[in-house]
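User: Fold this; tokens only.

Assistant: Input:
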Amino acid sequence: MEVTTLNHLYFDAVDRYRKPAAFRFKRDGAYHDVSHEDFARRVQRASLGLLSLGIAPGDRVALLSENRLEWAIADFAILCARAITVPIYPTLLPHQIEYQLKNSGAKIVFVSTQTQLDKLSQIRSALPELAHVITFDPPLRGGSEAMVLEGLMSRGDDFAATAPERHRQLALSASPDEVASIIYTSGTTGVPKGVMLTHRNIVSNVRTVAGIIDFDPHDTSISFLPLSHILERMAGQFAMFHCGATIAYAESVEKVVINLREIRPTLVIGVPRLFEKVHARVMHHLTNAAPARKKLFTWAVDIGWKAAESRLANRRVGPGVALQCAVAKQLVWKKIHDQFGGRVRILISGGAPLSPAVARFFYSTGFTILEGYGLTETSPVIAVNTAGNARLGTVGRPISGVEVRIAPDGEILTRGPHVMRGYYRDEMATREAIDADGWFRTGDIGTLDSDGYLAITDRKKDLIITAAGKNIAPQPIENRLKESPYIAEALMIADQRKFAVALIVPDFEVLRAYAEKNGIPARSEADLCHHPKLVELVQSEVDRVSGDFAPYERVKRIALVDREFAIGTGELTPTMKLKRKVISEKYKPLIDALYKTASTD
């Protein structure tokens, strides 16, 4: 069967693999396996249930849920009914959910928990097109109008009795150019837009990425990035299913550290913040280590980097270096690998730029970490580093079938089967994003080197112009600041200002440990952020990691923020990107104070 649609992909995998552990999920304190056969049976029942409720090809069905087995069941059921999946981030507020349901015209919405059902209950009266609500968990309250997933499946059983071949026939009749999903953008600069991705868009990405990164049926991946985001859905669900890998669901983002050790995955798809945290913790513990331990760590990292340089250039690692690496792994690296379960062969980073220093750290401790680049509108992968052909500081070469060029103003343009059909119900925005020749404007600034490797500088809209007319790309600078174990998040401000300042969210655990060790009284996060000695410490860290910046790029003053930026407060998008305008407005008095009291000498 030629895989040209996600439905072809689904049936091809079910027919080929028939693994007893296609999926794993945790219940009652233990992980349980679900076979391809059992999963396919549930998908069929749910898909026929949707047909029994009147769902027709092209109808929109929304999914409001955290990552879990039922997410995949519902997604494939919707697709097999030739309907369009509209994934909605479970972290969104009721009014944000209302907009996406109303804009998409969803007829049915799947919700996971009572928490999500409660949000929906607040906006239900404003959604006249929404005919049915289906819950994964039995509702505890306010669920009189809802149908439990098992009830939907029972309806599917009745429907199957009258049309036993309907499920597969309908699913495989889908065209590659049909819209498979409408995914709403994060809305960092305004109202979210519905990105229409076709079966062809997503399948082209799945087939290419799965081939060059070499997923296989022996792999186990852990699913914890939101399935509402195209990266996790394309790579963590569709590509893994296509290759026969086992998909294991983390209980929650908060429990990922525990679940990694339980699942022991071979593949981990993460965002830079995950890898930055691991790096920061290791560096913090090293500062308190005995001199002999520090010397051992430095040796292990140095020998690891020698081996990594050979691997990155696709060269054989010499026997002497290989032997030393084996020793380094047992003495030093093993503890870091154990944090990921001890079996990881590939780490994949996407969603935001990864600091070269963090990437080098992982390579130097025996990991292979592959950074990629893309957007929701590109299904998502445009370029990715691959094992043996990776170049730190870049996001790799464009994948097969994808064209990339740099516009005169530095913007990255791309064309190919991965580019969306357009924005749902927004022809003007579509015309602004995709020109007459099919080139999509990414909104990112970057460069292509002579070997075809793509490097990302920053978002075009995020570029800062100082009062002196100097251009600053803030993301690389912010990433450099986060290399300090004391800094969890950083937001640079310098637009139309004489010099740069930054809002810093400290790593409170690390900062508190320093305060206790040095006898600095601090009962709360606010105490930590306001104590002069601790502010001075973090400023010294900022100066340390940014010593090679141009003078106009250096952060002259900082203010410590006494709580983490959050999605619920509107400071972060659901994909954990900073909403610069929101944060700058919210902390305007604090920012203004930095400029009033600062000396530029």
